[in-house]
Amino acid sequence: MLRLFKYLKPYALMVALALLMEFASSMAELSLPALMSVIVDEGVATGDIALIWRTGARMLAIAFIGVAANLTGGFFAARSAMGFGKTLRSKVFSRVSSFSLRELDRFGTSSLITRSTNDITQVQQVTFMMQRMMAKAPIMAIGGIAMALATEPRLAWILLVVIPILGAAIVIIALKGLPLFKSIQAKIDALNRVMRENLSGIRVVRAFDRVEHERARFDGVNADLTATSLKVNRIMAFVPAFITVMMNLTSVMIVWFGGREVGSGAIRIGSLMAFIQYAAHIMFSVVMVSVIFIMVPRAQVSAERVNEVLDVEPEIDDPASPVRPVEAKGRVEFRNVDFGYDGASEPAVKDVSFVAEPGTTTAIIGGTGSGKSTLINLLARFYDVKDGAVLVDGVDVRDMSQETLRSYLGLAPQNATLFSGTIAENLRFGRDEATDDELAEAAAIAQASAFIAEKDGGMEATLSQGGVNVSGGQKQRLSIARALARKPKIYLFDDSFSALDFKTDARLRSALRKKTGDATVIIVAQRVGTIRDADQIVVLDEGRVVGKGRHAELMATCAVYKEIVASQLSAEEAV
Questions:
Q1: Are 90 and 270 in contact (CB under 8 A)?
Q2: How far apart, in whole angstroms, are the C-alpha atoms of residue 342 and residue 338?
Q3: Fewer Cβ within 10 Å of end Cβ, the chain: N or C?
Q4: How far is CA 232 from the centre of its chain?
Q5: How far is CA 289 from CA 4, 43, 179, 332, in A?
Q6: Cα separation of 279 and 152, whole Å?
Q7: pTM of the model
Q8: HSE-CB for 186 with a 13 A CA cutoff
Q9: Kind and range of the H or E element at 513?
Q10: pLDDT value of position 71
């Protein structure tokens, strides 16, 4: 957890002030029992009213200072801890945003959400408690022991017996709880994963009548988390009970042995009362330490999980000296590209080579799992190639900055993703300065104008998170319009026409050819009708290029393409 404290540096002044205020508050609390003993032993015993008033006024002033210092310390501790949490969340979000898809797959979405929220909250809370309790507990303990010894050294042996017993018990309990805290965080990940899968796939769950199955699955991970949490709480519940017993036993011992000394005249009543209060302060500091021992192990686990994210060096990073193409045209070349996913026994694409020229449309077609979308991911540099190179205008994409590369691209992904907000905000996602006329033009080309006009507010109509208040075809058309509104050099359509009917598909492609005149267009598709008019069709089979050319050429030379066409079109339509 100490490694994360480097992000606390901007709040160092507030931390220092919080600690200073805690010191002042502690010193005020420690001075009050001594003044009380003066009132009892020297004021009440002798009837010196003036002394009682003077000492009482001092106690009142010190108590007021202590309260003010305590409140001020709490304010600064809260500000610094909340700022620390804000900084950590920002750092984690920035680091996750720079992850490649491979690194996102490594952690998993549910785990990253837990680390960004629950884990950082645990660290944030402990940071606050450390400034309050961890600063105050040693002062109260050391100061209390020193004042108790100075007040009544005859009774000090009681503290020497009680404190080691308390310390040993707390350490044993903390050691038993630490492994369980690690388990709890992992089980929170599992709970989030099941919940997220159920919510995102609710239509499938209901369609297949698996509601009870999903409920049982959730109840399983929920019960597992509950059982582990109860086990931890049972262990930790022993701490306050044990401390309460020890505090009461200590008070009884002090009164028992101290009372005998008072009877013999060796100890004065005021000193005995002060000693009891100092013992209470010492025991209270032990209670604070026990709370810290409960919270720190769990926060340590959370800190390790946050550090795992922050320690990842993204495999896809900008080069030290980025190269920009001399002339931005949008020419794309795949040159002997090999790539495989982690854990896969075979590469996803092997020795893929082709060129997509500006002003032309290149279509990629093949069976399921043949590597079509992988090529789009490699061009956008969501992954890096294993061998070979992907070039844009003659420059390897690995030698370009990610910002420069992606400024070339307008992507309509396979799974159309929309964000909460208005339709206009979604269409401007890739280019904030797009005008209303440009948005209207993009929507018209994407065949989205009609259903947008039917919505209340038109372009200002609100979309729900994920675009759940529009149909699949409407989502795809808005995704295509978003890519068009960006006006990129390279258009990437990754199977983004699949939810459109044939008539809408044909109208869209016709309008698209007029809009993308000088740009490079790459279309991944399953339907032959979508790509048969392309200037170049690249046919993939098991990750390899088995054919390149126009529709007529491939019908004559590529058996794989002929099989795909035969499965979708009649003999007359295929010509």
A1: no
A2: 13
A3: C
A4: 25
A5: 22, 36, 20, 63
A6: 11
A7: 0.73
A8: 7
A9: helix 502-515
A10: 93
* Helix 269-310 with 49-97: angle, nearest 10 deg: 10
Rounded Cα–Cα distance for residues 149 and 166 (Å): 19
The predicted pLDDT at position 336 comes to 94
Contacts of 292 (CB under 8 A, 6+ apart): 126, 129, 130, 133, 134, 137
Token pair recorded at residue 16: 């220092």
Measure the CA–CA gap between 137 and 176, rounded to whole angstroms.
Answer: 23
Q: What is the CA radius of gyration of the chain?
A: 35
Q: Give me 269's structure tokens.
A: 């009543």
- Residue 274 pLDDT: 82
What is the reported pLDDT for 196?
A: 79
Q: What angle do CA 175, 176, 177 make, to 5 degrees?
A: 95
Looking at residue 165, its amino acid is: I
pLDDT of residue 160: 81
Q: What is the pLDDT of residue 295?
A: 76
Looking at residue 119, what DSSP letter applies?
I
Whole-angstrom Cα distance, residue 342 to residue 13? 46
| pLDDT at res. 26 | 87
The secondary structure element, H or E, covering residue 85 is helix 49-97
* CB proximity list for 360: less than 8 A, separation 6 or greater: 520, 521, 535, 536
191 contacts 223 by C-beta, under 8 angstroms: no
What's residue 76's pLDDT? 94
Q: What is the pLDDT of residue 574?
A: 52
Q: Which amino acid is at 307?
A: N
Question: Which positions ≥6 away from 217 have C-beta within 8 Å?
Answer: 194
- The CA distance from 533 to 182, in Å, is 58
Q: Which of 295, 301, 2, 300 is nearest to 173 (CA)?
A: 295
Tell me how crowded residue 413 is: count the other CB atoms within 10 A of its CB: 18
- Token pair recorded at residue 142: 């050391």
CB of 35 within 8 A of CB of 60? no
Contact 167, 53 (CB under 8 A): no
Q: Round to whole Å and give the CA distance between 476 and 517.
A: 22
Rounded CA gap, 241 and 234, in Å? Answer: 11
d(CA 283, CA 503): 80
CA pair distance 111, 125, nearest whole angstrom: 20
Consecutive 10-residue runs of the chain (575 residues): their mean pLDDT?
A: 84 92 88 82 76 88 92 93 93 88 82 87 89 82 82 79 80 76 80 81 79 88 90 79 81 81 74 81 77 75 88 86 88 93 84 93 89 91 92 93 90 85 89 89 89 88 80 87 90 83 82 84 87 90 91 90 82 51
Sheet strands (E) in 372-515: 387-392, 395-396, 409-412, 421-422, 462-463, 490-494
